[in-house]
Amino acid sequence: MEGGSMRRSGRPQLTIARRGVAALAVAFAMLAAGCAGGDGGSEGKGAKPSPSSASARAAAAEKQLKTNSLVPLEGAAPTPKLPVTVDSSDGRKVTVEDASRILPLNGGIAEIVFTLGLGDKVVGRDITATFEEARGLPQVTKAHDVSAESVLSLEPTVVLADTDTGPSEAVDQIRDAGVPVVVLDPANELSDVSTRTTRVAEALGVPAAGKAVNDRFADELKAARAAVPEGNRPKVAFLYMRGSAAVYLIGGKGSGADSLIDAAGAEDAGVAAGMDKPFTPITSEALVKAQPDVILMMSKGLESVGGIDGLVEIPGIKETPAGLDRRVVDLEDGVLLSFGPRTPLVIDILVERLHQG
Prior knowledge:
By secondary structure, this protein is an alpha/beta fold. Among the domains are: 84-207, Nitrogenase molybdenum iron protein domain (Rossmann fold, 3-Layer(aba) Sandwich); 235-354, Nitrogenase molybdenum iron protein domain (Rossmann fold, 3-Layer(aba) Sandwich), CATH 3.40.50.1980. 42% of the residues lie in helices and 14% in strands. The chain has 15 helices and 13 strands. The strands form four sheets. Strands 8, 9, 10, 11, 12 and 13 form a six-stranded mixed beta sheet that branches. Strand 8 (235-242) and strand 9 (247-251) form a beta hairpin. Residues 1-47 have low confidence and may be disordered.
């Protein structure tokens, strides 16, 4: 599943972009603190969240995501302490001696590298790295296949991949050329984000920065979940669609969306209907059984079926409460299931949108 479509000449713009993002981060932090209560506020420690607090957090999150930029750790960039030898998820031990030219072959991994403060050492990107800081980097994938020739032409000193990266022949070719390739497990739920951040930071020789990113992530996620309103949990169906390719799937256990839906205080309709596979082809019977109150989609997926008007014409959609009420929530492809440092912003938005009306 793709997260979204994704020269060094663009690198000087990174500092300018970071300043703007840092300002937004400060504003977001102040707003978050205000939503948490403030002096004598009705939403101090232990108080119930209000609709206004959820709306304010969602508005701040949407503003941040609209910039399509990341918020790196404050302060000077960390200095990698190398060499290090780490475990790779393909069963190998990999020694990294140089992190001066980093090439992440996954959008979520790339987000982590930039958030650690090492973005100026990244030399290329794959198609799922859709955030602004990566825009000027050479792309080394066609569709989702890695081009070994493109990778090697950038002379990376370390490549970060995951077990879904392929084809395997290309990965072998990169490794055979003497480039250290650290393979990571995919992130399919919230708990995977911290693990992957720790492993990336260790592979790049900056473990302390990894801990700092994880601490920030935990604080932001806790604040996002604190805004979940009490009461009934709406049933939410995640639909993965690519109309041009006739791909129509509903998410179930292990889709990744189930973890986000749960964190936002809702119930995954596919899981509740007994769908024990990550994705199942959509049928009218499956939709009627799931009976979602809300449909969650990637923005490009919704666009590919003609927007909400086209979606409700798909057999079975109109027979659900979500279809009847046209309750559809969509988020940008490169963010929704990226399971990177921006995921707490996704939870902020879902908390507000899934519990509306």
